[in-house]
Amino acid sequence: MLKPALEPQGSDPALLDRLAAIVGSPHVIADRDSMTDYLVEPRGKWPGSAHAIIRPGSTAEVSAVLRLCQETATAVVPQGGNTGLVGGQMPMDREIVLSLRRLDRVRAVEPMSNSIIVEAGVTLARVRDEAEAVDRMFPLSLASEGSCTIGGNLATNAGGTAVLAYGNARDLVLGLEVVLADGRVLRGLNTLRKDNTGYDLKHLFMGSEGTLGVITAAALKLWPRPLDEAAAFVGLRTPAEALDLLALAQKQAQVTSFELIPRIGIEFTTKHAGARDPLTEHHPWYVLLDAASSTVGGAAADIGNVLEEAFERDLIGDATVSASIDQRRAFWRLRESLSDVQRLEGGSIKHDIAVPLSAIPTFLAEADAAVERLIPGVRVVAFGHVGDGNLHYNLSQPLGADQASFLGRWEEVNAVVHGIVTRLGGSISAEHGIGQSKRDLLPEVKDPTALALMHTIKQALDPKGILNPGKVLQR
Ligand code: ZN
Fold first, then answer.
1. From ligand 1's centre to the CA of 63, what distance in Å?
2. Closest by alpha carbon to 387, among 254, 282, 270, 298?
3. Per-residue pLDDT averaged across 413-438, rounded?
4. Residue 225 buriedness (CB in 10 A; 0-12 / 13-18 / 19+)
5. What is the 395 CA–ligand 1 centroid distance (Å)?
6. How many Å lie between the centroid of ligand 1 and the Cα of residue 51?
7. How far is the CA of 339 from the centre of ligand 1 (A)?
8. 259 CA from centroid of ligand 1 (Å)
9. Ligand 1 centroid vs 431 CA: distance in angstroms?
């Protein structure tokens, strides 16, 4: 077990001066008000406490900062757009926050090799725009794309709504530039599709949540833009029917997203987010299906064929296919507002689980019964990337319940739901990572040999334990 002997932060009064000499004094932020932006995370669950925010403007500056932190045994928390959902980007104990937002250059766009090289602080939305400007597509798709950054997306191996067709963030990467804990720079920004020269080190850093190195730039894969895209909003009776629809759709169409939405999700979004119910009748469950095609009009035609057969087999109750780009966007706005609207219904206890696809109906049946036994009247809002076997199994407090006492049962509820997930061979963190949130749960669910190897790798790459201490692994 790693036991870093770190200096208490702020014990060296000259440290901030030395950091300012590297990044320039305007980029050392130490007053409380200006730090707020970096110390409040989206869930309001892990308040941050930092000695200072350091904003380097280049890889060389990141390297110099880490060399200094290594020398002075100063703990560092790397941070991108501060949109993470497990507290991984939050300093816990007056560490220094290393904000990568100023590393925001696009270094190269190469449509011929279907690649783009961007620095860590470039937002996901901008990468997508840059790709589109050269008639290409970068498929990573998250509701936070306007503010999350590529460095954070890769450090957390983000998932999102396009994993079904294109994979997780780590699958979209050709090469990385990473600054190590001692300030050395690992220069791996190649755009090769094939490079079989030993250990593929880039994958160590993706999903490490800033505990093994700081990603400063990435060479990303681009894809040809599909000629046509369309979406369908489908009403059905059960999650099992959704899985049958998925199998049918994947046979007949190029399915890029397949998202499950419960009736209560439609009620929340129509009430709080101004969404319009896409279907006239009410259904217990809905699927938002997105498809692409390489022929004009092909996506809608393929979806039409899928739905026709699904009706014939009595798999679905009703469906509507997007007739315009605006309508497709409206479907997606409804889906993407699902996370936010739960806040307006009181307390919400979250899970980010995955189980094998075939176990989705069993998981839902067992978990629904278990949480109702624990908290009668609890409102289950189970939604998300069912095509990947990944659900955000969130629980809104019973109507009229006391928010604080409901949220006080977070761990107890998690334990019951995670118990079912583990029994079904699933994961307790499908796409959000471990951070602070699930660090102490990891030893219970991870293979002991895998966990021991994780500690070995951490020790080898960060022997002083200065990189994001207390995240992912227990100290
Ligand atoms: Zn998600």
1. 33
2. 254
3. 97
4. middle
5. 15
6. 32
7. 9
8. 10
9. 7
| 3-state DSSP assignment of residue 352 | strand
Q: Could you tell me the distance, in angstroms and rounded to a whole number, from the CA of residue 336 to the centre of ligand 1? A: 9
Alpha-carbon span 303 to 310, nearest angstrom: 10
Cα 393 to middle of ligand 1, angstroms = 10
- Specify the 3-state DSSP secondary structure of 340: helix
Check: CB of residue 409 under 8 Å from CB of residue 375: yes
d(CA 271, CA 263): 12
Whole-number Å distance, alpha carbon 79 to ligand 1 midpoint, is: 20
Q: What is the mean pLDDT of the chain?
A: 96
Backbone angles phi, psi at 58, to 5 degrees: -155, 165
Q: How far apart are CA 185 and CA 452, in angstroms?
A: 26
Among 416, 441, 420, which Cα is nearest to 429's? Answer: 441
Segment 234-283, tens digit of pLDDT? 999 999 999 999 999 999 999 999 999 999 999 999 999 999 999 999 99
Distance from the alpha carbon of residue 229 to the mean position of ligand 1, in angstroms:
21
| Cα-to-centroid distance, 315 and ligand 1 (Å) | 25
Q: Could you tell me if 311 and 235 are in contact, meaning their C-beta atoms sit under 8 angstroms apart?
A: no
Q: How many Å lie between the centroid of ligand 1 and the Cα of residue 90?
A: 20
| Helix locations, 186-345, DSSP H | 202-205, 239-252, 263-272, 298-312, 325-336, 338-342
**Digit-coded pLDDT (tens) for 311-349:** 999 999 999 999 999 999 999 999 999 999 999 999 999
Determine the Cα angle at 157 with ends 4 and 146, to 5°.
110
If you measure from the C-alpha of residue 265 to the centroid of ligand 1, how many angstroms do you get, rounded to a whole number? 14
Distance 159 CA to ligand 1 centre (A): 7
Going by pLDDT thresholds of 50, 70 and 90, the confidence category of residue 5 is very low
Whole-number Å distance, alpha carbon 246 to ligand 1 midpoint, is 18
pTM here? 0.94
Ramachandran category for residue 11: left, alpha or beta (phi over 0 → left; psi -120 to 50 → alpha): alpha
What are the backbone angles phi and psi of residue 423, rounded to the nearest 5°? Answer: -60, -30
Q: What angle do CA 149, 467, 457 make, to 5 degrees?
A: 105
- Write down the pLDDT at residue 12: 66
* Residue 268 CA, ligand 1 centroid: distance in Å: 18
Angle at 236 between CA 322 and CA 379, to 5 degrees: 105
Which range (41-50, 256-265, 363-372) has the least confidence? Answer: 41-50
